[in-house]
Amino acid sequence: MSKNLNYRFGEKIRLVRERRGMTLKEVGSEANVSESLVSQIERNKVSPSVDTLMAITDALEIDPEYLFRDYKKKRKIQITEESKRNSLTLNDVVYYQLASISERDSNAVTTKIETMLIEINPGAQKGDIEYGHPGNEIGIILNGTGELLYGTETYDLKKGDSLSFSSDIPHILRNKGTEMMQAIWIITPPRVF
Prior knowledge:
This protein has helices at about 10-20, 25-30, 35-40, 50-60, 65-75, and strands at about 85-90, 95-105, 110-120, 125-130, 135-145, 145-150, 155-160, 160-165, 170-175, 180-190. It is α+β, with helices and mostly antiparallel strands. The chain folds into two domains: about 10-75, Orthogonal Bundle (434 Repressor (Amino-terminal Domain)), CATH 1.10.260.40; about 80-190, Jelly Rolls (Sandwich). About 20% of the residues are buried.
């Protein structure tokens, strides 16, 4: 028995039981568990096994997902304050890490998507015209003018333009204006941070 359960759904079970006009004894009997156990579950005193929980939801004729709906709404979010952003400067290009999406498996945390604010000084560029890399990129030009060299093609870019492309083709984003070019850049899988 644990007093500090990570997830509490006893109130939902009690509410459904009372709405159906069932007693603790009736639910316990139909779920093949004791009346006392049902009471302890409703008061969040114990965390039932999956089999017990499924038996109780069957007895109450409810979808088990109903019990966990609020749990999905309570996942953590990542907030990075502007003053605490990671940054990296490479060849007159400054990368500010905005946010990333990671997945946790049994061995490690793997970052799947990376979002950055990039600032490219006049005449500077990011990328490589000889090599691509696995993945995809999305960009939104916030300020300035530039061009994307993508394989053998060149695309002019200005403030407000957005673009997306497969990263496996060699590509360069170049500032061809006289002011700093700023862009929001999204890469999957991540390459910078």
